[in-house]
Amino acid sequence: MSHVQTIALAQIAPKLGDVAANLACHRQYIAEAVAKQADVIVFPELGLTGYQLQDLTFNVARTLQHDDIVALVNASREIDVIFSFIEESDEHFFYVTGVYAAKGEIVHVHRKVYLPTYGMFDENRYVTSGSQVQPFRTEHGTAGMLICEDAWHVSVPYLHAMQGATMLYVPASSPGRNVMDEHDFGSHTFWRQLLQMYAQLFGTHIVFVNRVGYEDGVHFYGSSGVVGPEGRWLGEAGTSREALVTVTIDHRDVRRARYITPLVRDERLELTLNHLAKIQRK
């Protein structure tokens, strides 16, 4: 296993409800990432459909066997691909789903477990929440996926870390909220602090890919980036513009960080489980 991995951040502006156009965009970015010799390319949450779908959810949903999904999985023969769309299950339930594909095969499927339904968000009205937090193996080690709001609940990265993940991928569709000044948003600042803290607490690399563009007056600000296990930003894609940025990481940084600050090693899982069991019995 190579210690070094190059990650391509595909900070795109999906067209709402236009799967064909977004699929073409994905293919173009994948080709560019291959030309840049990246090992994996990461697209944002619902990059294949757009975010503010509401009643369009029914029309843009795809099964894992749909030709559009198979086309993207096939595109993973030269580079690993993480993409997101509205998945329709065999039971005709609808999910916000992220797929990790490699060598022309689906390696892992993550269904978003936390659906924001407050303020400007209305996800739980249209889609169902997933129920699994499961890491997966890649050529570069054990990874976990969190889709946007999943990362705002500490239980999700905690469960990934406790199951061996040393890399966390976070595709997002985060709008700019709580404008602080002309260059910053409260949501942007919150994300940066949150991811830096997780990276240090769990001794992981974190890859955050947020979309850009506007939908119905809502602005998605981008600011995708990669955080190292010491909490330092290793590369960023900038704000409010489409970009394909590559960031090279060294997985030995996780080894060093966990040796110097062994928080994951010293975590007392039985203590947490005992207290959760007591809470559940009340």
UniProtKB/TrEMBL annotation:
InterPro entries: Aliph_Amidase/BUP (IPR050345), C-N_Hydrolase (IPR003010), C-N_Hydrolase_sf (IPR036526)
Alphabetized Gene3D superfamilies for the sequence: Carbon-nitrogen hydrolase
Pfam family, one: CN_hydrolase
Positions of the CN hydrolase domain: 5-251
Protein name per the record: Acyltransferase
Keyword annotations of the record: Acyltransferase, Hydrolase, Transferase
Top-level taxon of the source organism: Bacteria
Entry's Gene Ontology molecular function annotations: acyltransferase activity
Coiled coil: none
